[in-house]
Amino acid sequence: MILLITKEKDASLKKMKTLENLGYEALHTSSPEKALDLIINNKKINLVVIDINSIHNYIIFIENILAIRDIPIIYITSTTEKSPIEKINSACYGYLHDDSNDFIFDSTIKMAFNLFEKNERKNIYKSIFENHHAAMLVIDPKNDDIIQANPAAINFYGWNQKELTGMKITDLNILSKDKVHTEMQLAKSKKKNHFSFRHKLSNGAIKDVEVHAGSIVVGGKTRLLSIVNDVTKRKQAEKTIERLAYFDSLTSLPNRKMFFDNFPKAIIRAEQNNLKVALLYIDLDSFKDINDSFGHPTGDQLLVEVAKLFKKNLHKNNTVFRLGGDEFAITVENISNSQEGSKVADKLLSLLKNPFTLENNKLFSFASIGISIYPDDGLNVDTLLKNSDIAMYQAKNNGKNNYLFYTSKMNEIAKRKITIETNLRHALKNEELTLFYQPKIDFNDGKITGAESLLRWFPNKDESIPPSEFIPIAETSGLILEVDKWVLSTVCRQLKKWKDLGYPDQKISVNVSGMHFKQGRILKTLGDILDEIEIPPKSLEIEITEGIFLEDIKESALILEQLQSMGIDISVDDFGTGYSSFGYLKRLPVSTLKIDRSFISNAATNSDDASITKAIIMMAKLLNLKVIAEGVETIEQVELLHAEGCHEMQGYYFAKPMSIDKYEIFLDKL
């Protein structure tokens, strides 16, 4: 809507008619006051036409209009002199002579509208440029000069307007000038508009920035408007997130996720160069014992020190990963034969020969290592990792502190172990386990004093799985706890049954695993069983190997004292095969010592074994311990043991392990 302001009645009528004919909606007023009121209240008015000849102090009047609204104004004048026009030129969007024809009138109006829109856009752009929170730079793409910088850019970079506009965009970047210039040319040609740079500030700081650059025309010349966003904190956060995702927080080594991302790339490189890759799977042998004995902080520190040791001493072609817990993986690239893998394994084992000083303790941590080779042992990461894991466990089973290369036979062994573990779980539920009993004979009167319970597994009538095969698997899988409970409960029920049937009192010994003994688990298990099954605790004897005691003498003594207070006797099994220290026996409430069969079998023919056997019996007597010889098979062994004063015997010379039915017949005969 156009507002016409003129006092000439005839002229105003004529011009209103002209505006109507030209298709414009218009209002007319002759009063400056009325005009100001309309401009204030009628927002539809978007152009003012003023006859300056009819307005007193028209310059002041125009200033009042522009103070109210930014609106285009066309001036009508009767003079051709420059003076009045010059006075209002800054606010003029067009001017007309009194006698201008309709065409000129219409053209001037249209030009005023167009010019106002351009100015309005220009003002908007200027306002955005001046007030935007992001740094903005106007750049000449020909020579990379910075032509203009907004206040945000001045604040960000630390240079003032004059200093910044005296620089080139290439001066801000730490990239090569040619590289930056090329990027600016891409922006000019609209082939690319998003860039990542590192810009330096006036104080020397380096910032990560993202630049959105677009081509604009200013004064008929092509320029680049670059919006610069500081993304330093975001980049740092991304690096932190990436580190958390791909690196182990404890050791700073690449983690399992990084391993699965990177190893396939190593395979591709090997395939392209017709080379091999060795994968070493490493497990620390004594980590669990250190963790349990010295606490998790010490265990964590051990992992950190091992990681440092590996990183410091391995070749750049070797990448170390922490897969989890105490398990590490090392990839060995650019090799032509598998022996390169053994060189790395030898070096690792050599590095681990020296003790670690942790919390003022010198601790050793050896390792078992399994090695698989691409492409010999697998074509993908999953297969190679599985096979190196299998080889590592086989190395651990072979005595630890060594390494083995994967073979297909190991896979068969591993599958057999998994099958046994799975079936053993079913066996516990399906009553496939049974106990055999091997009698113990008193040397003085030849009577049965009791028996050792021995676990047997018969999956079906035609098959048996020896304890030497399934017990180690039960221990590594944790099933041994359930197995122990089943054996203890079964023995106690049998003792109760014999007592009810009137059999003579006897003592049945039960082998208990180290896992069950540790942390006093055995105390709760036996407490629960004896609460349920009423038998004299003295009829039960617990057999534990000496190595279990020595892992923690203090804890072992406390547990044994509590077992003793329950009325249960303790026997040290397989004495002589481990530490064979009588020193610790003085500190532990044990009642019986069992001499291992390895000494007994050769005692009658080998003087060394005979001497060891005699020494064990003599020292046991001095400590008031009962001595039982196991594995007695010949009369010569019986005579030797009898001469030395051994208390009881157990072995094939008297009876093999037998089922419950045969054992009861054996009891009845005696």
TrEMBL record:
Residues 275-408 form the GGDEF domain. Residues 121-166 form the PAS domain. It comes from the Bacteria. InterPro entries: Biofilm_reg_signaling, CheY-like_superfamily, EAL_dom, EAL_sf, GGDEF_dom, Nucleotide_cyclase, PAS, PAS-like_dom_sf. Signal peptide: none annotated. Coiled coil: none annotated. PROSITE patterns: EAL, GGDEF, PAS. Residues 417-670 form the EAL domain. PANTHER family: BIOFILM ARCHITECTURE MAINTENANCE PROTEIN MBAA, DIGUANYLATE CYCLASE DGCP. This is EAL domain-containing protein. It comes from Psychrilyobacter piezotolerans.
